[in-house]
Amino acid sequence: MTTPGDSAAEIWPLWEVFVRSNRGLSHVHVGSLHAPDETLAVRNARDLYTRRSEGVSVWVVPAAAITTSDPDAKGAFFESPAGKNYRHASYYSKSEGVKHL
Amino acid sequence: MTSTITPDTSATAVISVEEQQFNDLIEADSRIEPRDWMPEGYRKSLVRQISQHAHSEIIGMQPESNWITRAPSLKRKAILIAKVQDEAGHGLYLYSAAQTLGATRDDMTDALIAGKARYSSIFNYPTPSWADMGSIGWLVDGAAICNQVPLCRASYGPYGRAMVRICKEESFHQRQGFEILLELMAGTEEQRQMAQDSVNRWYWPALMMFGPPDDDSPNSAQSMAWKIKRHSNDELRQRFVNMLVPQAAVLGVTLPDPDLHFNEETQQWDLGVIDWTEFHEVLAGRGPNNAQRLQRRRDAHDEGAWVREAAVAYARKQSARTEEMAAS
Question: CATH code at A83?
Fold first, then answer.
């Protein structure tokens, strides 16, 4: 499948927008937008996604520049953690009742 | 497992692994995301629905922007500008969501201005009085919310997420409209008359926003099987009328349906007969303002052509300069 926004029929590319809602928090994906370049993408992102003080910082990334895992290989790709519940603290139950552990 | 969402597939036909994965996700009430495999019909149906929805938001700016310069106070003017800006924003969220399905913005815009794409017929009605700003907020945005809240759970992820943002903003729209009518109803006899007259004109078209009755809605069943749509048109329309009746009592306006009455048995408000001829006429382009709305959108597109071209030329120049600097 073609990458969204990466099309000859599209004059302006698609951008993915990430907003940091407050200092101390991560930027979170909020949606996409359409802009000719990065400067206008940032300005459009402000107008489109932060009209009600939703953020203190905005990132824009060309949608075509994002590399993702193959959705069809979902099962196999994320298989490794299965059966490895010893990676979670909750696996160790013998210490129950002991304080500060 | 036999699938309920691909009725044309015979029980013996082999379903591909991808199709099975898609069916399982829908079955489990999970979400489909942009790079997942999906049936062509699902993609097409979503592009049609999301782009029509986007066009409605964009055309929907016109009946209200008409009153920005004549708003009765600076406060009302600021509110109206914010609301019209929100509608533009809603259109843009939705166009982006359609783009994640491979539709291009340019194709969608071209279809709209060529008159090939549909948008909600409600925006083809005129707004001759200030009270119409109240009725649009209360009735039109109210009906939109009723329709859109279930769409927040639509099976296509980007559409559902766009709807969550839109619904949050729509509740301001509905309340500010209600407030306009409430203030008019507390005013002079002339102002009360203006509010009532406006409600009379918008009530029926707002009920038609839910679409044709269930027995005349060809795409509904498939759309519900795919969990894009969650409730039928008539179900949502009934829910809306049940909410409106007590609100109308608070306002002190009459709803222009002499047959409207409470049904003790169903505990619902039964409504009179909707004039579907009017709905089909407006949909077919013969509403009071269809031609004007499209012409205005077309003019705006033409007048903005130089801005789009300049922005692209500038972006190309900048990226060429960056490459040059990287090479030297």
Answer: 3.10.20.520
pLDDT digits (tens, 9 = 90+) for B121-174: 999 999 999 999 999 999 999 999 999 999 999 999 999 999 999 999 998 999
Distance CA A10, CA B318 (A): 19
| Domain-embedded: residue A28 | yes
Counting the structural domains of chain A, the total is 1
Q: Which residue of A has its CA nearest to B105?
A: A10
The pTM score is 0.88
- Domain annotation covers residue A92: no
Sort out which chain B residues have CB atoms less than 8 A from A30's CB and list them.
Answer: 165
List the single best residue of A33, A48, A74, A77 to mutate versus B (max B Cβ within 10 A).
A48
Query: Looking at the domain assignment, is residue A36 inside a domain?
Result: yes
d(CA B50, CA B211): 15
Question: Which residues, in sequence order, are CB contacts of B265 under 8 Å at separation 6+?
Answer: none
Q: List, in order, residues 6 or more apart from B282 with CB less than 8 Å away.
A: B121, B124, B125, B205, B288, B290
Any domain includes A6: no
For A72, the domain range is 14-87
Could you tell me the sign of the dihedral formed by the alpha carbons of B3, B5, B11, B12, in that order? Answer: negative
Write the burial class of residue B100 (CB in 10 Å: 0-12 exposed, 13-18 middle, 19+ buried): buried
pLDDT digits (tens, 9 = 90+) for B168-204: 999 899 999 999 999 999 999 999 999 999 999 999 9
